[in-house]
Amino acid sequence: MINMINKDLPKKIPVFPLSNFIIFPKTTVPLNIFEPRYIQMIDDSMKNNRYIGMIQPKRTGNLKKPDLHKIGCVGKITSFNETDDGRYLIVLNGICRYETIGEISSNKLYRECEVNFNNFSNDLVEQKEIIKFSDLNQVFNDLKKLFEQQGYQINWKDLENQSVEQTINTLSMASPFTLEEKQILLETKNLIDRKKKLEEILVTYTNYNFTNKTIQ
């Protein structure tokens, strides 16, 4: 079953390198597209299979063409609108994480990569929920404090209408963590490991804030 679903995913995808931004399978994100290279990318994607690979750039490489992390997540455009000033407003649904095999040379304005989904086939099937919402109480409490300190806002009631997997993934995406911390969350093997990593990262922020208050 997994292989049958997996074979429908393209081996070559356009990639959108966006710093400090990740998506996960079974999550939905809105994007505002205005750069010419990504306008071209959306145009081509809409004519083809609507798939786009979201991936984080590294801090190395050329400024206009930075090195990319190896692991990203492919999403599918499920909503498309064009504004009067030529921008595209799209909604991207996360489908499956992927490993980058190599970059493809072309004359297009945007970048394309050859990718492999084999290590993340479990993203394509419904997982039995082995974590309960009650197991996330500490995560919720720590994140609420962090969001307040950072001036972030999130609709906590909306999270209650999601599955535990969607909730953990949404919090991993929305949290004010560093590029590297978000990449670690993206690369975790499964939901249990992601929850543990999320807790570990939150502890470092909690300890940092506690230390700062103690010094002052």
Molecular structure report:
- This protein has helices spanning 2-6, 36-47, 137-150, 156-159, 164-174, 179-187, 191-215; strands at residues 12-17, 28-33, 51-55, 57-61, 66-68, 71-82, 88-104, 111-116.
- It is of the alpha+beta class and 216 residues long.
- The protein folds into two domains: 2-124, Archaeosine Trna-guanine Transglycosylase, Chain: A, domain 4 (Roll); 133-215, no CATH class.
- It has a five-stranded mixed beta barrel with strand order 1-3-6-7-8.
- Helix 3 crosses helix 7 (191-215).
- It is globular.
How is this fold's topology laid out?
Blueprint: H1 2-6, E1 12-17, E2 28-33, H2 36-47, E3 51-55, E4 57-61, E5 66-68, E6 71-82, E7 88-104, E8 111-116, H3 137-150, H4 156-159, H5 164-174, H6 179-187, H7 191-215
Parallel strand pairs: 1-3
Antiparallel strand pairs: 1-8, 2-7, 3-6, 4-5, 6-7, 7-8
Helix pairs in contact: 3-7, 5-7, 6-7
